[in-house]
Amino acid sequence: VVRNEPLRVVLRAVAGASDAGPSSMTVWIADAMNVIGSRPTGWWRDRGAAVHRLLGASRRFGTLTGDRVVLVVDGRPAPDLPGGEHEGVGLVYAARPGADAADDRIVELVASEPALAGVRVVTSDRALQVRVRRLGAEVQSAGTWLRALDATSEE
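RESULT FIELD:
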């Protein structure tokens, strides 16, 4: 998946179907570092491992619910974790370095989708919440999302 692809193209890569789109499923677009940073797990000591853990939990969630998950990550892709499809979860890196880069990429993904029914952005960043709500997306907090992921790991 190319970094600046619209949401529909990202979802096609994840779903493996030519006309997959958010109108037929719930699509979770997660502000990955906001979600990871919402719990003091020591993630800052190994950011790559934290992204791997979130990716694994997101895979389980997607498998159990049938929902699609797209994680948007700040920074450059790790050598062992390139952007693209990872067993049903889309991994997208911010298109540029710097402050709010992942937020801007999330807004681009949301804005690229004309049919926002079923698109939910996961973040506790209030400024990002305002931006995506203006575009018509629903928002779920990082804490609520993590509790949903925790529930799927207990299955």
